[in-house]
């Protein structure tokens, strides 16, 4: 057997531990050799917990000493761009957490750098790896839904402002629910639709509750430093004539605690994503064409698996640099449209 590929993780927080390191440790072909975190004690403590041999506070030192083949970037959004470029310069394949970056220009630079280096760059848009999403994409390609002209994507929380990390800090995070959770349903919807070309977007963003309340489903936050939107509503118009409506919130007075789903309305049939359910109307009656009982929740490990298999040469699709760029471009256009109060052409 060829030698094991060496893996390093940059940013030793929650997602690094529960998703990236935990998945890599299940693969015999990989050796997780290092964790880097700007807080040395975090890097050391994660390394100790998971039995990873090296911990660093400086990524350059890690590259010098460990020479990894694969790097996971799990730092706050603002640092993705520099950490991905540094990993590619050091000859590594990269799995980067979402969102790709802070701007479409950065995401384009990351895509181009990966192409130039001939290395894999994947983003952890994990909802597209659920069986439900894969199944619906196949059904859409097979024409079961017919022309899809309305898509409703929702990533809503009634009071789910994250009480940890930097999720309420616009400067470090780039935005609120749109860039944190809305982006996931946006990616899943675009994936199922086959990334149709976008014509224009319009949007409204609000900051009404996050700067007034201070506790919720995910702990406490400081309303005085809440600088992101707490709810955002957007309409994306495609060149093919269809529209995608996106609703996303950290805090919004709705009856459900959380909604993460996408609804597709086609000429032949409609569908919801989680769990996958395809239906149509027959003389006023809802008829189910196919339905899964429960949604597949093992999406995160499937996303990691797709990345590792792809690196190892399997013909598996990933959320790549180009798709990461297209999603980042859409997010930027939505924020711009909300800020200007008028639609933005792409
Ligand atoms: N795909 C998903 O569903 C999902 C879920 C959670 C988080 N994320 C993403 O993962 C990233 C991290 O989120 P998290 O929840 O793990 O946050 P976290 O705050 O738990 O962890 C981030 C870690 O990065 C470290 N760090 C900060 N700046 C650094 C730097 N310049 N160099 C090295 N380390 C640095 C911090 O000390 C911290 O330990 C974010 O981009 C977030 O959007 C994605």
What structural category arises from helix and sheet content?
A: alpha/beta
Unreliably modeled segments = none
Shape: globular
> Treating each run of at least 4 consecutive H or I residues as one helix, how many helices?
10
The CATH class of the largest domain: Alpha Beta
Percentage of residues in strands: 25-35%
Estimate the mean pLDDT confidence.
Answer: 97
Number of self-contained structural domains: 2
Architecture of the largest domain, CATH level 2?
Answer: 2-Layer Sandwich
Radius of gyration: 20 Å
Please identify which CATH superfamily of the largest domain we are dealing with. Answer: Dihydrodipicolinate Reductase, domain 2
Largest sheet: 9 strands, mixed
Q: Write out the strand line-up for the largest beta sheet, numbering strands in chain order.
A: 16-15-14-13-7-12-11-8-17
Q: How is the CATH topology of the largest domain named?
A: Dihydrodipicolinate Reductase, domain 2
Order of helices and strands: EHEHEHEHEHEHEHHEEEEEEEEEHHE
């Amino acid at each position: 057997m060829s030698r094991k590929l060496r893996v390093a993780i940059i940013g030793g927080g929650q997602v690094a531990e529960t998703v990236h390191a935990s998945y890599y440790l299940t693969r015999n072909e990989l050796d997780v050799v290092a964790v880097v975190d700007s807080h040395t004690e975090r890097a050391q403590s994660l390394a100790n917990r998971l039995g990873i041999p090296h911990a660093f506070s400086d990524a350059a030192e890690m590259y010098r000493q460990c020479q990894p083949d694969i790097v996971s970037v799990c730092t706050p959004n603002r640092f993705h761009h520099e950490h991905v470029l540094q990993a590619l310069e050091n000859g590594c394949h990269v799995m980067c957490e979402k969102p790709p970056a802070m701007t479409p220009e950065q995401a384009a630079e990351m895509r181009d750098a990966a192409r130039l280096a001939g290395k894999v760059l994947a983003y952890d848009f994990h909802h597209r790896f659920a069986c439900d999403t894969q199944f619906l994409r196949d059904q859409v390609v097979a024409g079961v839904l017919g022309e899809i002209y309305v898509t409703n994507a929702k990533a809503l929380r009634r009071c789910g402002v994250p009480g940890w990390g930097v999720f309420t800090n616009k400067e470090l995070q780039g935005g609120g629910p749109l860039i944190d959770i809305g982006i996931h349903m946006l990616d899943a919807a675009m994936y199922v639709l086959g990334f149709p070309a976008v014509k224009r977007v319009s949007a409204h963003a609000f900051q009404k509750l996050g700067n007034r309340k201070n506790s919720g489903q995910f702990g406490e936050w400081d309303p005085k430093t809440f600088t992101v939107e707490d709810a955002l509503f957007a309409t994306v118009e495609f060149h093919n004539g269809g529209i995608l409506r996106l609703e996303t919130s950290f805090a919004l007075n709705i009856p459900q605690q959380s909604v993460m789903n996408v609804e597709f309305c086609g000429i032949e049939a409609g569908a919801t994503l989680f769990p996958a359910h395809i239906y149509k109307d027959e003389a006023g009656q809802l008829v189910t064409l196919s339905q899964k009982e429960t949604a597949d929740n093992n999406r995160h490990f499937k996303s990691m698996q797709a990345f590792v298999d792809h690196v190892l040469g399997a013909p598996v699709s990933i959320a790549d640099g180009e798709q990461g760029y297209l999603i980042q471009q859409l997010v930027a256009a939505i924020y711009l449209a909300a800020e200007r109060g008028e639609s933005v052409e792409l």
